[in-house]
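step: validate -> pass
step: tokenize input -> pass
step: predict -> running
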Amino acid sequence: MLSVRPHDFFERKGNDLHCVIPISFPQAALGDEFEVPGIDGPINIKIPEGTQSGREIRIRGRGVPHLNDKGHGDLIVKVLVQIPRKLSRSQREW
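step: predict -> pass
step: emit ->
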């Protein structure tokens, strides 16, 4: 029997890995690039401008290797936009 330990960052579903990345409102509105951890090392991902909270970005072939076959599953990054609860006076006047 194969047993897989839980991970702090990734959730495994079949051969796909899922993770959640919090980003700021400006990153979502204007777009951004940053690194996320991967099982084989860091992965650069691009967040397109206008990204909505809950959007999933699929990175093909960066998941778990297939057990008796060639290839890998995918890494699916779910983006959660964090909206500030309080704004400064200058931010409110914008």
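step: describe -> The chain has a mean pLDDT of 87.
step: cleanup -> pass
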